[in-house]
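Hey, I'm writing a tutorial for new members on how sequence and structure tokens pair up, and I'd like a real worked example in the thread rather than a made-up one. If someone can provide the structure for the chain below, I'll link this post from the tutorial.
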Amino acid sequence: MFKLTPEIIDQIIFAMEDQENSFVVNPDTGGLEEIKADDEGFKDEKYIEIPEWRPVDGYRLMESFISGLHNPIYRQQLLDAIASGRKVFRNFKNSLKRNAVLERKWFLYKERELKRIIYEWYNANREIQGLKKIQIPAAETEDLVLSDFVFTGLDNNPAIIAELDRKAVFGWYESYEPEIAGKLYNERMSNLPDIDDKSSIVFTAQTPSSETAGFIWVIKKKKAVTGTQYFLIVQLYVIEEYRGLGIARALLKHLVDFTRSENINLIDIALPSGLFEFIPILKSFGFKTVSKTLELNTEQL
């Protein structure tokens, strides 16, 4: 049985997507050979047909990719593209081109799935020959997508971060009248240092075009009774169009690594309703609930 090298995998992927020509693998060489209409020699049973890949398979792969997206904006844009009825693949491709990160995520997802199909096909042929299956390498699609982002400090852009923080907070209070939301925001800010104060620590996620995709803002504090130093997370925010890419988790990891370097072992976060979506991520890091705040509006009784 031929060895499945990265070079051969790339050749098979290219051949699978070629809808005009047919290819087989020569198991003696591991190379691909094109089947011509009058090639009788390829009827020899030793040649192995490559996995079938039809346009309908490509369409289903797009559907699978879209269904796995957490970001509702991305999901709807791509759903609209493939529901257009005409030039579906072209529309899907054009929609992806509007966002370089999403486009990269698609190519990585597609490559991972095609490689999985090839490994399953390869193992099926090994079984036929009485050989042991080989292990399919683990894919790290999310990590590769995140590698496009630069995670850094405040980088002398406090005004941008402050504006994003304000946007996030007003989102928490969207059910309130704008005037009340403004008062709640001002009250919050009166109890916090400036975002570029020395007691503030900010980590940001920058896109390949140097735009801010998200940030985490913490302040260093001391427990009133014990005097224990800790970090309080006052904001964790990812811009809507970049949600679902693992940015919040990566920002938290940078914070955890930083606290270890500072020899501070405690991180707290008070969760307004706007941050409830991060609870699963926080718990996956080991955060535990230490208090709860309940509110009753007697006018609604």
